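Dear colleague,

Following up on Tuesday's group meeting, I ran the structure prediction for the two-component complex that the binding team flagged. I've pasted the input sequences exactly as they went in, so you can double-check that nothing got truncated or mislabelled along the way. The structure tokens for the whole assembly follow below. Feel free to forward this to whoever is handling the docking comparison.

Inputs:
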Amino acid sequence: MNELEILVRLNLSGMVGSSLLRRLLEHFELRRVPALSRRELQRVPGIGPLTSQAIVEAPDPGPEIELAARHQIEILPSTGPLYPPALRSLYDHPIVLYRRGATTEADALAVGIVGSRDCTDYGRRQALRFGQELARLRLTVVSGLARWIDTAAHRGALLAPEGRTIAFLGCGLLRTYPPENARLLDEICARGAAFSEFPLRSAPETVNFPRRNRLISGLTQGVLVVEAAEKSGALITADWALEQGRDVFCLPGSIESPLSRGCHRLIKQGAKLVEEPADILEEIPVFASLVEPRIPLTPLERGVLRRLTARPSTPESLTLLTRLPATSVEHALETLVTKGVVRRDRAGLYLTADK
Amino acid sequence: MNELEILVRLNLSGMVGSSLLRRLLEHFELRRVPALSRRELQRVPGIGPLTSQAIVEAPDPGPEIELAARHQIEILPSTGPLYPPALRSLYDHPIVLYRRGATTEADALAVGIVGSRDCTDYGRRQALRFGQELARLRLTVVSGLARWIDTAAHRGALLAPEGRTIAFLGCGLLRTYPPENARLLDEICARGAAFSEFPLRSAPETVNFPRRNRLISGLTQGVLVVEAAEKSGALITADWALEQGRDVFCLPGSIESPLSRGCHRLIKQGAKLVEEPADILEEIPVFASLVEPRIPLTPLERGVLRRLTARPSTPESLTLLTRLPATSVEHALETLVTKGVVRRDRAGLYLTADK
């Protein structure tokens, strides 16, 4: 078995995340793992009878890999170059991720939008609004494809021209949950991607969703909680965000609405009260400079800045990305450097000044 | 002229607060002030032609003092024992206060409730609720008798059995503004008091209200802003509260309501988001211990604690106030001391442990 096959097989066992894999590799080479006996596996701290049984009895990964290929689903090993770096930095990330659609460098700037499945018109309306406005500002909108709030957030992002959105599913990518969102999922994958850590045909088990939530927050700079009842899964996402060092943003609401209670509790605990997209942007270093009136930017500068990330870019790549004349891009880069928003590294490449 | 007459006369000039009076007394004895010429007055830094003219031309205080007496209105000089200590500690407090009704030691624990005159049903409903619940918990509800929010706050306090409420007016106490609140004002004065720093027949001039707001916040431990548009006078009260070191509490609301914008701005700046009366109580040291589950108290202990303030009380006075048997009060005091909520001073009197 090659590396991908071994990782898919371990993932099919349902018992191995990156944390256990790390310990496993302290004792054995990866290529030896498929041949290990239960007794050998149990030498690894944290692997007991159940885990060792699950690993030994995990099915042949061949059919799963073929099935993925047949459906244009990529399987990204956590060791590979396509695995999202933000997720790889999570303590216990999935050892493989299934991906339908595509991600781009632009997805490095992302905001999660989450909320209770029970929600009000207010919550749905604002999820749509924030989805659309944040996507228009070139932030990728990440959510969970669930009914109401998640759905509104994805739809909002799709309403923005070139808006990008990513869905993390709590089931395998060959299932659609909730079923009425099949069409929406197609649209999301055409303008972004759907991810899952669960094998392709996994059912949407209740236990999957809290796990899934850590990836929503993990991929983003911060998470906006639109509405959340006191025991909502959205609060789990907010807890993950805090643990991962991501920002937590909350929409306030009427104190008479049980669905705003979770948001109010988070605000009392220090989450940021949000009324406008600018409230989110100003917390994200690369976008903070866009929030007027701190540093007024021309539309041209703004267009160039939106394509810049913390990773150095050449003027040529920016010209390609912005579809602007090379001289305009060069001029904008010069003035952005003067305004302190952008800096040049030693190689003469441009990057955002905040990092 | 006696001291009260001189202070009333200076107050009638409309130009002398405690800050200017302090400087005046650095140069002259109070009894000499009525005889001073404009030229002599102008020796005092801060007294120019306008102020000196207003002082010299201020009317005889006799008729004002008689008028007050005829209407059972007391005039409290800032130097006298009846002047509220919390207001005397303000940097530029009124040199006299007119009072209709009565204040008691219980008013040392007070919360202001303020809001835009424009408001929603939500704001009125919550002002009534918080007025009633805070008054039930033995906090005196302080507001400004204005339409809607203020009115609802006062009415809420009056709904609580023995609930106390105080109104600060932006006009003289012989005027009622708004006129439809004449009956409400009578009820307030029967269960609390109305105060004004303005001469008895002063009209409700626009400039009076921001001045008046500093007294609302000044008399309280903190101010609850129920609803406030972006340029509401309620925000002025909140600013005064911050300047005076009082807490600022805010009700959140829909981000689609312009009347919650002021509250949201304050929360972003650090004001405390409030959903329940407990959110307010826990910031007020003497009441913090009541908020479950920090220190569980029996109903008896609670009844006794409610009557205790930062000023030492005898068990006898507490027996009178609580209308409980003396032995029960003594037992409750003992257990409250054990629980660390109450302490005895050197004279053996009881006071709250937080101060």
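Residues 121-136 of chain A form the longest helix (16 residues).

Cheers,
M.
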